[in-house]
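Async update (no meeting this week)

Hi team, since we skipped the sync, here's where things stand on the single-chain job. The sequence we agreed to prioritize is pasted below, unchanged from the tracker. I ran it this morning and attached the output directly underneath so nobody has to dig for it. Comments welcome in thread, and please keep replies under the output.
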Amino acid sequence: MQTIEEALEKLKASNFRSGFSLKEKEKAYVRKKGMDTIRRHAQDFVRQRLAPAVIPNDGKQTPMHGHPVFIAQHACACCCRGCLQKWYRVPKGVTLSEKQQNKIVNLLMAWIQHQMQDL
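Output:
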């Protein structure tokens, strides 16, 4: 099992995943709302859009912009069940456990935190 830092390093090696970053607008949103609120948003998005066993629009459920967590999901390959399976061997068709959801949220929040430090 890899650590968050190991996962972030692996993602940096992907041209596609490493191309995502928070722009000033998203950073300002994070500063305004605070990390606790952003974490709650991430928990909600993961629970509603990623955790169900069957997602009718899987592969298209996560917008490419509009919220820092959406950008983090694409940067961290946590945007759909296909990416979770490819990058983290999380099988499709099975509801994500609370532990799995927490791991995803922790990864997303670590990525956002790194982005906020790159000033």
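Quick observations from my side:
Residues 98-117 form the longest helix (20 residues).
The chain has seven helices and no strands.
Reply here if anything looks off.
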